[in-house]
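Input (structure):
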């Protein structure tokens, strides 16, 4: 009987300790994201056919703690709904998420030595892109591995990209006859 009571109390204490540790890890992960700053947070561009743009973003870790961030790209549809690029099943020509070229691996801050990382994003629309405005979001989520970071997307820091793809229209006016009044 005493052994059963002891086992039950031990299990309750163990569950409480593990729960506290897990809760403190989640809090510290969110706290670590508070120390991450990304600039700029919005990139607005206007591109013509056969044009591309190189944009630089800076990710800064102000905490001095070890942090690993993973990028995730969202396509934004006409209704404003975010769809992860991995789950995207639309034509490359109409998705800004597919025009973004940048390192997709982890962004690592270790030992507080490196405070900033600069990332270059190449934005190159497809040659078959129809004129219009396209939107995407790049989210940087914290996690030791990509799956853990994906689970932390709700706390991610984001960059919004808005690209207006304009058609180059060459208007020609020919005057055959001109008379002054």
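Output (sequence):
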């Amino acid at each position: 009987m005493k052994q059963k009571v002891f086992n039950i109390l031990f299990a309750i204490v163990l569950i409480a300790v593990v729960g506290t540790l897990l809760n403190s890890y989640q809090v510290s992960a969110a706290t670590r994201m508070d120390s991450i700053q990304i600039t700029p947070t919005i990139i607005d561009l206007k591109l013509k056919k056969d044009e591309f743009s190189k944009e630089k973003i800076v990710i800064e870790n102000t905490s001095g703690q070890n942090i690993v961030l993973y990028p995730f790209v969202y396509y934004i549809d006409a209704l404003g709904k975010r769809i992860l690029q991995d789950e995207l099943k639309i034509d490359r020509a109409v998705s800004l998420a597919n025009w973004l070229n940048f390192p997709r691996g982890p962004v690592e801050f270790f030992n507080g030595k490196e405070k900033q990382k600069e990332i270059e994003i190449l934005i190159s629309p497809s040659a078959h892109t129809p004129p219009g405005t396209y939107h995407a979001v790049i989210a940087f989520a914290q996690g030791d591995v990509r799956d853990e970071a994906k689970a932390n997307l709700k706390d991610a820091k984001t960059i919004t990209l808005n690209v207006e793809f304009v058609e180059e229209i060459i208007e020609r006016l020919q005057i055959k006859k001109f008379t002054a009044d």
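Notes: The CA atoms of residues 111 and 149 lie 20 Å apart. The first helix runs from residue 2 to 34.
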